[in-house]
Design brief:
This protein is an alpha+beta fold. The chain is about 25% helix and about 30% strand. The chain folds into 3 domains: about 5-115, Helix Hairpins, CATH 1.10.287.110; about 130-270, Heat shock protein DnaJ, cysteine-rich domain (Chaperone, DNAj Protein, Chain A); about 275-365, Sandwich (HSP40/DNAj peptide-binding domain).
Length: about 375
């Protein structure tokens, strides 16, 4: 690859000062920017590459000594158009930062090319309030069958006095004097790329074009203020521990915008008898040895009423009994099952009579 003449690309002499190089680049960048009607993408890359090298003292010294094909580590091609350190449209802003330019202004200028600037109207985004979250502790039984709860939350909410209008009751609205009823403030900026026009929402009327002639005494015209609000929450049946409930529009409000969302994390307290596995309920049941050998009936105090369970003869340790439809409610009005794990409790100490009876059973091979 042939050596590139970066000085010629910018139209300056080899002894040009930094200020001359900067002015030359501004002129060339404005002329060849690819988003302008008469722009030239190839020339713009060339100008940018030249500026990235000549605006940096170290890179310029290396270039003056070795040319554009010199040792790696210098040259605008390493971080220029299409490389790292890019801004809008692949443009490398590192040179501007090195020269002390305000990057906020530079980004604002280039954003005009891509957001309807150059005299166009930028699309306004509706304001949205902040999402908030809280936690709620509920009983195990409420997580299975659902319940209704209320929580008191301190948050920014719509003013109940003026209903969010910001106006004192009975007062009229008047044209905003700051934007003359337009709802937007139009601004014109001059830069090395030319003159750009933009519009932003009027902060006085929040884009409405009118303001109350008398402000609400509670929210001071904002339409929102921080207050405590009681919120009713419907806990659905079958909710899991740690699951989140999202309440759209119940987060913090914002002046003349959309409220954020409220997220409630559900903490389910453990139950002394039951535990959950998916849509099923599991429990342990201790039975006597005689019940295991001869069978029996037991009444189980289930979450939604008693259940009579028949224990068959000759059950073994850890055998599981199944009661259909007494588990966790699921969709389509169905329910999971209740599983009962049998634990045979052996006596720790035998009476004389019990020992004699067991000895007889032993003789029979039981």
């Amino acid at each position: 690859m042939a050596n590139k003449d970066y000085y010629a690309s910018l139209g300056v002499s080899k002894g040009a000062s930094k200020d001359e190089i900067k002015k030359a680049f501004h002129k060339m960048a404005h002329k060849y920017h690819p988003d302008k009607n008469a722009g030239d993408d190839k020339k713009f890359k060339e100008v940018n590459e030249a500026y990235q090298t000549l605006s940096d003292d170290k890179k310029r010294a290396q270039y003056d000594q070795f040319g554009s094909e010199g040792p790696a580590g210098f040259g605008g091609a390493q971080g220029g158009y299409g490389g790292q350190g890019q801004g809008f449209g692949g443009f490398d802003f590192s040179g501007f930062q090195n020269q002390g330019f305000d990057m906020g202004d530079i980004n604002d200028i280039f954003s005009e090319f891509f957001t309807g600037g150059m005299g166009g109207r930028q699309a306004s985004q509706q304001k949205r309030g902040r999402d908030i979250s809280t936690e709620l502790d509920i009983a195990f039984q409420d997580s299975i069958f659902g319940t209704d709860r209320k929580v008191l939350i301190s948050k920014v909410s719509k003013c109940t006095t003026c209903k969010g209008t910001g106006a004192k009751d009975g007062s009229k609205m008047k044209t905003c004097s700051k934007c003359n009823g337009q709802g937007k403030i139009h601004e014109t900026k001059r830069s090395f790329l030319g003159t750009f026009s933009s519009a932003r929402e009027c902060e006085e009327c929040h884009g409405r074009g009118e303001v109350p002639s008398e402000k609400c005494g509670v929210c001071k015209g904002a339409g929102v203020h921080k207050q405590q609000e009681e919120i009713a929450i419907k806990i659905p049946a079958g909710i899991n521990n740690g699951e989140m409930i999202r309440m759209t529009g119940m987060g913090e409000a914002v002046s003349h915008g959309t409220a954020g969302d409220l997220y409630i994390k559900i903490n389910v307290a453990p139950h002394a008898m039951f535990r959950r596995e998916g849509s099923n309920l599991i429990m342990d049941l201790n039975i006597k040895l005689s019940d295991a050998l001869l069978g029996a009936e037991r009444v189980i105090p289930a979450l939604d009423g008693d259940v009579t369970v028949k224990i068959p003869e000759g059950v073994s340790i850890n055998q599981i009994l199944r009661v259909k439809g007494r588990g966790v409610p699921t969709s389509h009005n169905n329910r999971g099952d209740l599983f009962i794990k049998l634990n045979i409790k052996l006596p720790s100490k035998l009476s004389r009579k019990s020992r004699e009876l067991i000895e007889k059973l032993k003789e029979e091979g039981i």
